[in-house]
Amino acid sequence: MIVNMSDGATERQIEHIIQRIREAGFQPHVTRGTERTIVAAVGSGGRRHEIEALSVAPGVDNVVAIAQPFKLVSRQTRPQPSVVVVGGQKNGGVKIGAAEVVVIAGPCSVDSREQLLETAQGVKRAGATMLRGGAYKPRTSPYEFQGLGIEALKILREARELTGLPVVTEVMSTEDMDLICEYADMLQVGARNMQNFALLRRLATVKKPVLLKRGPSATVKEWLLAAEYLLSGGNDQVVLCERGIKTFETGMRNTFDLAAIALAKELSHLPVIADPSHGTGKQSLIGAVSRAAVAVGADGIIVEVHPCPERALSDGPQSLDLTQFEAVIRGLSAPLRPVLAPAL
């Protein structure tokens, strides 16, 4: 349930509603807008009729039901788009969900110090705003390269100090989380871990932004419910990432779901970025799919870049070299970006 406070509601009236929601057995979540305040009553097992009765309380405009199962992620709870800030050490951090399209670039995995530093400097020159790189790699085969671990994290930190680019890297288990938090500015939940609920619950308690990738067989509803785990646990610094889904198509690594980006932006206030590298698995398609993603409302892209893709220890066929990456950056035109009205 959502309690919409009136324009002139006082702080005392808002606090009264918060207390009454707690007494009814729900958790209150407050969103303060420029014109009015919204108080969401979230949870199960509470006394719904007591929340409905708040419609006559002083300072309340109306009480409405939340239509979606993802309560805190829904635009009903927060009509205005959220902005997630990553890395505040320099220039106030990178803002995802604001006016500018964010470009996150770097190798699938950190292969060596030389490889990562060359990539970081190259993508910085081309216009990237964040650096990606895998330290721990979930691979389909146990015989494939699994990442350099702590060594890679140290190299990523060195690259951040050299370029000023905030770093995002994947976290695969709760055991590695504290260590990765020391080195990374943003934690990525890979597609295979989208419904790793123990991992999500732990991530909900850390004070780091989270990049949540959509699972290869997940519906948009399941994707947003995974994000709900993070917000309900206390971490509202969440960015969604569409990276393609499994279908009958065999010409590409995955089927990139452009409509899911638009739908997620319609249903949720969270920023959404696109991963055309995993979404297609083909160098030649990344530029076109990146432009298409921005055209339907994506707040940014995350692409794999390697100085020499043929030497990459993982995902070489879908990695751009630095020249190709520069071309993709040039192709991202600001006028393509639509103005999306909030879905109320």
Task: Provide tags for this entry.
11 helices; TIM Barrel; 8-stranded parallel beta barrel; 14 strands; alpha/beta; 4-stranded antiparallel beta sheet; Alpha-Beta Plaits; 344 residues; 32% helix
Structure in a nutshell:
With 344 residues, the chain is an alpha/beta fold. 32% of the residues lie in helices and 17% in strands. Helix 8 links the parallel strand 12 and strand 13 (272-274).
Overview of this protein structure:
The structure is a single chain. This protein is α/β, with parallel strands linked by helices and 344 residues long. It has two domains: 2-64, Phospho-2-dehydro-3-deoxyheptonate aldolase, domain 1 (Alpha-Beta Plaits, 2-Layer Sandwich), CATH 3.30.70; 84-336, Aldolase class I (TIM Barrel), CATH 3.20.20. It is 32% helix and 17% strand. It is built from eleven helices and 14 strands. The protein has helices at 11-23, 48-52, 113-126, 150-163, 177-183, 197-203, 220-232, 258-267, 276-280, 283-295, 322-331, and strands at 2-5, 27-32, 37-42, 60-64, 84-86, 94-96, 102-106, 130-132, 167-170, 186-189, 210-213, 238-242, 272-274, 300-304. The strands form three sheets. It has an eight-stranded parallel β-barrel with strand order 7-8-9-10-11-12-13-14, surrounded by six helices. Strand 12, helix 8 and strand 13 form a beta-alpha-beta unit. Helix 6 packs across helix 7 (220-232). The radius of gyration is 21 Å and the shape is elongated. It starts with a strand and ends in a 13-residue tail after the last helix.
